[in-house]
Amino acid sequence: MKPLRKNFSVLALAAVAAAAVLSSACGPVGQYPPLMHNQVAKPYIYDDAAAAPADAVLAGATKVKVGQEWADETLQGGTEVALAGALPDFSPAAIAGKTQRAQALVDKFTAPPESEEGFEHDKLPPDLWTEFGTVLNRAQRTLFRFQTEKAHENNPLMYMEELGSALYAPLVLEYASAGERFASIVERLKGVPDFTATAQGNLQSSSEVRAEAAKESAAGVIQLIEKDIRGAIPDDMNNGYRAAADAAVAAIEGYITFVDGISASDDWVLGASLYDRKLQLDSGRSLVTAANLLEKAEDTYEAAHADLIRAAEPINTRIYGGSRPRDDFRLMNDVLEVLEDENRAYNNRGMMEQMAKDAEEARKICNEQELAPVPDSLKLIVVETPEFMRPSVPLAGGFGPSAAPGDNNATVWLTPAPSDASRAELRDRLRTNNKFQLKLLALRYGIPGYALLGALASEMESAQKKLAYYVNPLPAYVHGWPIYITESMVGAAYSGDVDFIWRQYRVQTIAAAIADIKMHTGGLSPDDAVRYLVRQAYMEASAARALIRSIQINPTSASIVFVGWQNWQRIRQHYQETTQDFSPSSFHGKGLRTGSMPPVEFSYAITEARGRLSEE
Fold this sequence. Notes:
By secondary structure, the protein is mainly alpha-helical. Helix content is 65%, strand content 5%. The chain folds into 3 domains: 29-149, no CATH class; 155-261, no CATH class; 290-606, no CATH class. Helix 5 (126-148) runs antiparallel to helix 12.
């Protein structure tokens, strides 16, 4: 049905209204909302994917059609665009295109139902209703990023992390043949000079901490090109690679010089109003604010901290006997000094080998105890964190498979102690990464954490769904899952010292969220935040400094982990209340195959429209 023309007579409008009432009473409901939704959402899904080529490839697509139109219940027309060799386009024209597309979708999807452009989206069938909320959230995040946050103008680190990820993914994933992936790396290298020139044209200022991080990341991208890619490129492609790599490295070196001279007077503090909006969009919860999340986090911290101290007291008695130390910090320090030192790692290689073994142990536990469906085909390697990601991923990270069929490669990153670390700092880091902590990191960043996200996304029913739910996925969904499933695994399958170190790790995760909120909305200084993590969360000092720096350059990164963890807990409870014969493996598998959505839409999709989670 086409929108009503404004020059209809009152009588004609009355007749149309009467017909609509009769139609809704006598025939099927919802034909008009699906049409209006599909005309806007379906082309947007593909056009938006084309504007984010690295994301689209991770979602399993190496090419998409843009400019399609919805007609006769299908997408028609359009022009095919290759993505495998493309870099993200941040040119003014491309940014204008992204924001115009996003604004057009937001305008139509938020228009009053009675208006010319509006429609009753609550009458959409379940699959379209969840798609509606997901795509609307994504478009709103795009507008925030480019119109409000203006990351393209003030975040030089963003460009290097985008570039590094675009070059790194084809090295470690298997979404296409090795030859095709190396060819795409060469094509992307050829695009680096234009990419950095665009970045330099966009950037106007930065904070000092982001500028320094950007230069470090850029040096890491050069290392990726000169060391990792050079060592892997096939001999018959070496000539083309060498020419493209030389030009790319020169361009990145020029970028470092540019960033070194850019105005670095920006305040790294995001501020309460921007923080709230970013938190709401990245969590998918429109009612959350820094203030109410801080209250929740502090309450959760108090309970988790009390639980940790209760667990530490008998361990202290077992080790030392005698009386309890006079404060919690001394109690924890005494316990950890023995527990961590007796079980510490001895070198970086030993840490990575241990994590690989722990991930395989977790795979077995997941399947034997039916905690999560880990495919036998899923492969995992553990490597040092790429240099270009270390400012944002200071301690450990994960890189799951793409959603392409047949891609079974997942990677876990573990960051060693800094090369200039003192002997004391190195020892502290090896103590922190003791065999119990490594087991938790393997769960969170490997199996069944990030590794399982992409592995099960590949089983989604269509390429369109993968593009809808895994291009620019909801941060809280992606980063909440690994900590949620780690908690679930420990609760079901681990005890003793692993359980104790988990309690410490849980306190640290919550405390990081508190520090994040207070630094960006409450005036907490970085030095005081480090002291807080060391004294109140019992974190090793150099690790605390690295984490606080990542929070400075990526506001809400730690709080999103906390709120995403909460979201998964609430979804699970809602699922148990609305379904029968609850099975952890079935719930977790279904959740990851459903895809990234805001929590209300996710609750509706995963329970097969049996109910929507409250926003409260």
